[in-house]
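lol forgot to send this yesterday, sorry. struct tokens for the thing we talked abt
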């Protein structure tokens, strides 16, 4: 996986073996953000990412200028992985990561 655009463009990361979610492909993410960039204003946006998994989409939003992201996932490994990435990107203030079941 990699960040497709913005200030972290090109950064690659891989979830550990046995990861409990399937990441969004770069192809799908690129298509999603092409649509969003033409329909909305990503810079300054406040984003809620439910079933965040790897945080791939959350960090893409931050990379492209979103003001803040709330990323929610029920799996401890996902939350742990996103926390590691938030520290690596130095965006702990912009990304709030919550361990919770979004259907409850």
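and heres what i got for the seq, position by position
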């Amino acid at each position: 996986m990699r960040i497709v655009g913005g200030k972290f463009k090109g950064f690659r990361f891989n979830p550990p073996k046995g990861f409990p979610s399937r990441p969004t492909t770069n192809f799908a993410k690129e298509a999603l953000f092409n649509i969003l960039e033409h329909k909305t204003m990503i810079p300054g946006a406040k984003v809620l990412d439910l079933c965040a998994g790897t945080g791939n989409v959350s960090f893409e939003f931050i990379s492209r200028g979103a003001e803040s992201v709330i990323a929610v996932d029920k799996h401890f490994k996902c939350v742990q992985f996103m926390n590691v990435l938030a520290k690596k990107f130095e965006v702990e203030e912009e990304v709030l990561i919550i361990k919770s079941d979004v259907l409850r």
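The mean pLDDT is 94. anyway ping me if u want another try
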